[in-house]
Specification:
- The chain has a single domain, classed as Nucleoside Triphosphate Pyrophosphohydrolase, CATH 3.90.79.10.
- Helix content is 28%, strand content 41%.
- It is built from three helices and eight strands.
Length: 134
Amino acid sequence: MEKSAGVVVVSEGKYLLLKYEAGHWDFPKGHLEEGESARDAALRELKEEAGVAAELIDGFSHRITYFFTREGKRVPKEVVFFVGRGDGHPVTLSHEHTDFVWLSFDDALERLTYNSAKGVLRKAHDFLSKNEKR
């Protein structure tokens, strides 16, 4: 099973979404490197993909699993997401992405492509609503 980690980044009540080359909107995420923790991978991928640093908020992680096709084979994938507060730096996209946007919860929910990502956003938003000021 492939393992990845990502961050639901919030700043001033808005969530960061990235548009991937394939055309879908999702959160910053990527593969764990050998010996790397999921938290470290999530922060590294955020920096690599968006040029943004974030402070992860303790108490939230959410795993999703799905399958994708590579070279004609069905591959299982697990992604663990964390919630992080953005550092306010401007977004600098990597070559893997074509656009980005900061959106309110409702607008982000509408823009996200996959239902699994929408579920992650709902859980992150509920967590933030109950535990902190955004």
